[in-house]
Design brief:
By secondary structure, the protein is α/β, with parallel strands linked by helices. It folds into two domains: 168 residues, Rossmann fold (3-Layer(aba) Sandwich); 158 residues, 3-Layer(aba) Sandwich (Rossmann fold). It has 14 helices and twelve strands. The strands form two sheets. Strands 2-1-3-4-5-6 form a six-stranded parallel β-sheet, with helices on both faces. α1 packs across α14, α7 packs parallel to α8 and α7 packs across α12. The protein is globular and about 65 Å long.
Length: 348
Amino acid sequence: MAEALFAIPGDLRSTTGGYAYDRRVLELLPDFGVNVSVLNLPASFPNPTPADLKETARLFKGSRSDAVTMIDGLAFGAFSPQVVSELKGRVIALVHHPLFLETGLPHARKVELKASEENALNRADNIVVTSRTTKRILVDTMGLPAIKITVAEPGTDPAQRATGTGAPMQILSVGAVLPRKGYTALIEALAPLKDIDWRLTIAGALDRHEGAVAELQDALRKTGLEDRVTLAGKVVPATLDRYYDSADLFVSASLFEGYGMVLAEAMARGLPMVITAGGAAAETAGRASALHVEATDVAGLTEAIRKALTDKKLRDSLADAAWEAGRTLPTWHETARRIAAVILGLRT
């Protein structure tokens, strides 16, 4: 059994897609001959304090020259040159999405993160990314060699087909309330649709970005949609399953997705979708399964949602295509197998 270290910042139990990916990979890697130990990095990443960077350098200082270390990109991309210099042995970077493309960052911080990510990823011996789109970004914007990048898309668990509700029409959006998720734009897009009987549930953590939550609540007040929108916060898996099952339409207004795990989950349940095609979203959910709108196009989002809510034939067509596509999504075993091959040196 090969040995590897997986360095992850913060609380591995967090409900974001990135942490869910890490948990499933950790669970399954032993099935493919890799025994993994977790190295807990400070929770302040990707915006580490000087003290946390010093502590991170200390954690890696004793690394063996024959070690294999996989490092979650939420931290790795923000490593200082000093921390990078302490890394020994073979380093595998896991990039969910480039840090410098996070929405809402000041320009100066984007520049800093791009420089630190380039430095760290150039040090990495191998890079695992969660979508072909992210691979293209790393090659095209950072000049990284494609040969050392492996795509390991997130797996999707099989699920029962959603039954929906119908009256009122239930719209579902899933993901933590962050600037990148575009929830304020979604509320603005829904405001002109008060003539249709719909309800929206947003299932996602409300403690990740105070400013985004305040902006969302302000948009609800200004549009008068408080009674139509439920901010469910972080929910347990059984509750999320109920939300998926009762939904009539899945909507994502995200500005950028490294893959879009919730889109795959919606497809696995045969839900018709309206999505903003930011990052890898358009690749994850094809045009047969979803109506695509350019990110930030609020008027286009309004038009697409209206069309989906009022045209049952269209919804049924999107739902059937989503259900069929959902049958072909990669499994978590395939994800873990690909990463194990990188750790074992079987893939470049």
